[in-house]
Amino acid sequence: LRGLLTRTSVPRDVVDYIVYGTVIQEVKTSNVAREAALGAGFSDKTPAHTVTMACISSNQAMTTGVGMIAAGQCDVVVAGGVELMSDVPIRHSRKMRKTMLTLNRAKTLGQKLSLISKIRPDYFAPELPAVAEFSTSETMGHSADRLAAAFGVSRLEQDEYALRSHTLAKKAQESGLLEDVVPFKVPGKDTVSKDNGIRPSSMEQMGKLKPAFVKPYGTVTAANSSFLTDGASAILIMSEEKALAMGYKPKAYLRDFVYVSQDPKDQLLLGPTYATPKVLEKAGLTLNDIDVFEFHEAFAGQILANLKAMDSDWFAQNYMGRKSKVGAPPLDKFNTWGGSLSLGHPFGATGCRLVITAAHRLKKEGGQYGLVAACAAGGQVMVLCSCMFSQ
After folding, report:
1. Each residue of 79-128: pLDDT tens digit?
2. Do you know which Pfam families this protein is assigned to (predicted)?
3. Once rounded to an integer, what is the mean pLDDT over residues 217-234?
């Protein structure tokens, strides 16, 4: 948030509302949007609220802000997301929590001693947050493995795609294209001034890794999966009239967006395939009109399975109720500055990172339309079209 204020020079008191997305919430800062805004020096008169929608939480924050502007409630909104994966809340077991709450209500020493005597060693086993579906009790990695198998995506293809992501991210970083990273001083450590998860490897080294989820025959490994990391993002959204009146030149315009939900078991990660044709139809565009594609890379297998599904008439007819396929995005327009596999995936922050990357790519490449897609837990997805660069 401080970085946004510095980069844009937007007066703090001009911001009408702040919306932030997050996934693993800390109870002490349950409305992290408000706490972060106050900490960053925004006016205490500026309302703020927090949204959560798994990996598309900051996408939801952005479209919530856009909706408020479209409804005439606001002229200027700051949206973003944050995740602190290095310090996730860890809870006591349910038995221990129940005992502690009851103990807090006990009035006599005898009642307290009686409760304490009932505590058993297994009460102290902590409950760790898991990247798993509540409805299926299955991790997203298992879903990615099954999806890759269903679409015939080999381990070799996944490793090749992951290597592509790291290689492109490294090239973009060295070329100064990842310009929106704000240096951050980590308490007790050095200042982080660039994404530090970009590690181009070799196919030989990647091939040595064992399956991470479906053992021993799975194809999803640590090398072809996005890694969890800390991160935060922020984006400034205005009505066109307000932006021009304040002397700002818009980086991009939001043309349209779509949210869809799928079966959270077998089609957990296939949302981009379902949502892309819908948003293109809403926007009056075709796949050929899109100059820049930015898809969230949860897993290499997930990306490649979606590309195959998008390019399949059979899948379109049998699963989507469509007469023909939408088509697969060409790779020369697809995540050409790297993606979540190489840059990392701080759940709540990724959506804004995708959108601003699309806007910068459009400007750099002279394109007009961009399409952003991100899948999320629960079988949900958000597709945004289009970031239209203001020439």
Report:
1. 999 999 988 888 888 898 999 999 999 999 999 999 999 999 888 888 87
2. Thiolase_C, Thiolase_N
3. 95
pLDDT in tens, 230-251: 999 999 999 999 999 999 999 9
Evaluate whether 168 touches 177 at the Cβ level (below 8 Å): no
**What is the pLDDT at residue 387?**
54
- Which residues on neighbouring strands pair with residue 334, listed in sequence order? 293
Which pTM was predicted? 0.92
Domain ranges of the chain: 91-127, 140-181+252-385
CATH class name, domain 140-181+252-385: alpha beta
pLDDT at residue number 390:
44
Task: Please list the active-site residues.
Answer: 55, 345, 375
Tell me the Cα Rg of the chain. 22
251: tokens are 């980086």
Instruction: Evaluate if residue 218 carries a pLDDT over 90.
Output: yes
Task: Check residue 389 and give its pLDDT.
Answer: 47
Q: How far apart are CA 51 and CA 351, in angstroms?
A: 13
